Request: fold
Amino acid sequence: MIPLSHYLLLSAIIFGLGVVGVIISRNLIKLLMSVELMLNAANLVFITFARWYGDPGVHIFVFIVFVVAAAEAAVGLSLVIAVFRRKESVDVDILRLLKG
Amino acid sequence: MNLSLFSPQIVLGIGGTLLFLFEAFASERGRSFLPTLTLLILALSGVLMWKSYGEIGVLFSGMVVYDRFFVFFGTLVLLGSFLAVSFSRPSLQQQDAFRGEYYALVLFSVLGMTLLISAANMIIVFLGMEIMSLPLYIMAAMRRGSERSVEAGAKYFLMGAFASGFLLYGIALVYGATGTLSIEEIARVWPRGAGFSSLGVAGMLLIVIGLAFKIAAVPFHMWEPDAYEGAPTAVTAFFAAGPKIAGFAILLRLVSWAFSFSDPVILRIVWMLAALSMTVGNFLALTQSSVKRMLAYSGIAHAGYALVGLVVGGTVAIGLVGYYLLGYLLASVGAFAVIATLEKSQERSLSFADCAGKGKTNPGLTLVLTLFLISLAGIPPVAGFVAKFYIFEQALQHGFVWLVIIAAVNSIVSVYYYLRTPVYAFMKTGEETNPDIRISAGLVFTLVVAALGTIIVGISPEYFIKLASSSVMWFF
Reply:
């Protein structure tokens, strides 16, 4: 059997990739994907511990997170489209009208 | 299970859905009733909230709880949204941002806030946070034609989604450390080892970071000035009223209940957040030339002052945080309402220079604005002063001398930028007058309630403080 720590390590790596992706990537779509990566890393932890504790209820939480992630992607992508319509680009650096 | 205890949320959810449908089929004339309908639904939810005051009920197999804490903070959220909605129509129309969806989105967002405040399980914490936030992102980008508004929405969304990733990963780690998602169970397991395991501490920190984004505490504040400035001002008033208070409510519930008795690391983190928020928020507010942006930074500083109460802990101090938020809510919604009326166009936000001479042309508006700014600055005798005074006094009694020194210095600094607007308005003469300032009945209502509230809450604080501390009693 694969030990618990392997799952946790994997999820920590995925989460770290997501965080780094949000911080360094300059493309709005990539940013969105990195956020999804963070949510899925959390899902992996939930599944791992739900199996560990033998707690089927928590599996449901993972489905709830899927639904929320889908809703978030819907809102996020429509905002990206709104940005693209105004500026013809999805680069983060064009978002700099508001500063100070 | 007594479903009537959940009726405030049910009313908001059904109301939001019906408004969406109504908006789709209504005529132009029918749409003009949307604000009134929204106000009615918010009021109904408030009445239902108070109907069973004093009872404690756990609903849906321990998912949601009805207690005094929920009633107190839920009322703050409903009151703030009510005030922000009641002046919204003329203000949004003036900025060409009046869309029917706004009102349904307000109701859904408020539903998320009430869920968040009543959460008894980490699932609801996450779900409530998302139901609250998703409509906010859309509302910030309400003026689709404006680059600034769309940019505000995109920035708010990116930071918000990033924060919910932290929150969710934190919840997952805390689940791993404790084996439960119920906040009550976590509170029971936490002192017996889970709170000191590295998994538990890491999870707790991630949750606090996620919530710090939502209340805009430094260093997680970057989105707030941009979202506040780019959004239509009536929407900004709503941002200042609801999400911040709901975020604080769940932070208080988690830190002072579930994660109490834990490693002192949490206290040190909140201490740092409080000190940084006050200092950075105030000093950046000093450098602003736009009144709206100045108020956004002042909102960050106020999150810092309120966090001082959380650092101190205990029934009295946590209750005072509730009282503090009440004072902040009234003053900031009122101030944003005045700014929404005074500003000429959304593309250039109201600067201090634009306020010059307004004391002559619009004496009433400027006077109430001054009252709100005085309350925010913490000058006696209004609500802001009393709240700050009591919180600092509590912190001193518990030996947080340095924190109080930082807070006091910041309060003094903040007087400078708060009083700049009244100084410009009353002492300088403006070259141009803006004749088309329309005062609607809704605006008068918002301003009168906010101004009277600021004064009454400040002059007779005992009742409100008692209400606030009785709402947090059962955490301790």
